[in-house]
Amino acid sequence: MPFTPFHFGPALLFGVPLRRRLDFVTFLVANVIVDVRTTFVFFGILSGRLHGPLHTYLGATLLAGVLAGGVLICARLVPSVMDRIRSRPDSVGAVLLASVTGTWIHVTLDSVLYLDIQPFAPLSTNPLYGTISTGAIYAGCVFALGLGGVASLLMLRNWLSATN
């Protein structure tokens, strides 16, 4: 997507109700971290194809492993910081599930939109491209952001009322 924040819609929509099964903050980060390299290419810091190896399921899985490792290391080394962002992972499985599903959702959404993505690399085809219209994807992400935002506010309200 041309603007990574569109990915927050599906992340919130799925992340809030699944927060007991996956680490919520890790899931949010996983949904947008795939575009790190894309951003560097876009601004000319790196060269190459805009959607490169992280926009494949293999690359996204490897990135998910790095993200999960980073989250778990941070949870052990700086628990006070993790407490501040309300991300003390319950389990390794919750972090891994959040990392993999978040990065894969990103690859799937972008694969539908962009022909230059090769989600099943080393295969050079993109069978997902064009299966859903661009307008429908964007509208769905905006709708998901609205629903996910409401769900997030309700989650925050419940959390605040439970701590008082």
TrEMBL record:
Domain of life: Archaea
Keywords of this entry: Membrane, Transmembrane, Transmembrane helix
Transmembrane segments: 24-45, 57-79, 91-115, 135-156
Record-given protein name: Hydrolase
